[in-house]
Amino acid sequence: LSDLKKFNLKSGDVLFNRSSLVRSGIGWPFLVRQEDNTATFDCHLIRVKLNKEKILPEYLYIYSLSP
Q: Are 14 and 59 a contacting pair, CB within 8 Å?
């Protein structure tokens, strides 16, 4: 059970969809705004943990939404 803690989502984590039923869904970002120790991510998502002194998670999220 303690191994699962490394998959818990933290505030500021940025997730990217690794797979989708439609091509346009791949790479779609999601910003974790609140820490939730009951939420985890799986192999269909890529989690990016940022150094907030170098880049703000909100900036990466909004930048990733741009075409």
A: no
Q: Both tokens of residue 67?
A: 């075409």
Structure tokens at 55: 């880049």
pLDDT of 1 > 70? The answer is no
Tell me how far apart the alpha carbons of residues 30 and 67 are, in angstroms, rounded to a whole number: 16
* Confidence (pTM): 0.83
Backbone angles phi, psi at 61, to 5 degrees: -60, -50
| Spatial separation of the C-alpha atoms in residues 25 and 66, rounded to whole Å | 14
Give the helix ranges, DSSP H, for the chain: 57-65
Q: What is the dihedral of CA 30, 32, 37, 18, to 10 degrees?
A: 20
